[in-house]
Amino acid sequence: MTLVLSKEQVQHSIAARVAKEIEASSIVNLGIGIPTLVAQYVEDSSIALHTENGLLGVTDVNEEDIDPNLVNAGKLPVGEAIGASFFDSAASFAMIRGGHVDYAILGALQVDETGVIANWAVPGKNIIGVGGAMDLLVGAKKVIVTMSHTSKDGSSKLLKKCTYPITSIRQVDMIVTELAVFKVINGTLYLIELMNGATLEEVQQKTEASFIVQL
Amino acid sequence: MSKIKKTTEDALSPIKDGDQVLVGGFGLIGAPLTLIDGLTNKDVKDLSIVSNNLGESGKGLGLLLNQHKIKHAIGSYFTSNRDVGEFYHRGEIQLTLLPQGTLSEALRAGGAGIGGFYTKTAAGTQLAEGKEQREIDGELYVLEKPIRGQVALIRAHKADTLGNLVYYKTARNFNPLMAMAADYVIAEVDEIVEPGELDPEAIVTSHLFVDAIIEAQQVLTKEGVVSR
Questions:
Q1: Portion 38-57 of B in contact with A at CB < 8 A
Q2: What is the ipTM of this complex?
Q3: Residue B53 near residue B73, CB atoms below 8 Å
Q4: In this predicted model, what pLDDT tens digit does every residue of A82-106 receive, in sequence order?
Q5: Where are the transmembrane segments (chain B) (predicted)?
Q6: Catalytic residue chosen out of the listed positions A21, A23, A52, A208
Q7: Which fold does the domain B15-120+147-219 belong to in CATH?
Q8: In this complex, is the C-beta atom of B159 within 8 Å of any C-beta atom belonging to chain A?
Q9: B140 touches A at CB < 8 Å
């Protein structure tokens, strides 16, 4: 049976697992939510964090050093690393779309069994925001998705087919939830790890999408 | 004729009803808050606003929204101002949603005389519906058109009296792109200096793009937007 963890512990367990995937000297773009926490687990100083609003070399910032004009994509205050650079939005998205960013870590609402995700719109609600999600999906060399395994009502977020509008036709590379880690290879999901003491039976029960077990 | 305008009202005088106005900023960061405030005092309507967001609720471009001066907004992320959803729901504003990279590149293209471009972003999704999609070297792309405005309102850090501009940290964002993509460009800055005082290697926006300059009166601080 899965360990009983608080919501915060669950999020941190996912962030810590994602951080292990990131190779030295990589350029990494972190999305809003759980992905933001990944920064706390990236210890290698050769890794540079990119934010879409125009900074390569994002760091944490102390309360007393907060600058209202120095923020990340979530408009939260950040610091700048030694060797950081600032640039305009077109240059920032040239980095993203042009394949210069090694990893994008993103949240998702749904993932289908081929690795296509939906993370920008919910049908029936006003569709009024997309931000940089679609650009990151097409441009980052590797895309890692972090999300809770199930919705609040207990239904699986790993589906046969997304019911929400998709973000891109590009398939992601990895999905990390509080229960499991999946790799996506040629449009097939492979269960490669169980998280936080979850069992295979539990993952099978809570996953609508087909997957191959490769533990 | 000097580009330095003594009043915001004077700087904003070319804006007329129905104009498409480009407004810099990522939320309130790098937004020309003094010029936006000036627009709230100007009798103008049916504006098309091109900006990443419409500010926040009751702040920045949110002020213009609440005055019903915006007929159409073109941007990437309106979710940051909850009022936008309500206006949209009531049919009081038209919205055009673009991915952020497409918005920034469309402005760059508009300023650079490019008639359009193909991007992989949004290909095969709902945001590509009604747009030309084609395969190039085995991958699906969407045709996007350039964006220009009659006027651009931008925020920079310093200007010299010629109109050369430098920016400050992540307040740069869309500003240099919008400075290139409008017929009349008004820059709001923290400080105006003499020519020669800005390092030519550090200038991001060259003076030929800039038509008018004002000093910022409304600035973003840790405590929020304040008058200085």
A1: 52
A2: 0.97
A3: no
A4: 999 999 999 999 999 999 999 999 9
A5: none
A6: A52
A7: Glutaconate Coenzyme A-transferase (3.40.1080)
A8: no
A9: yes
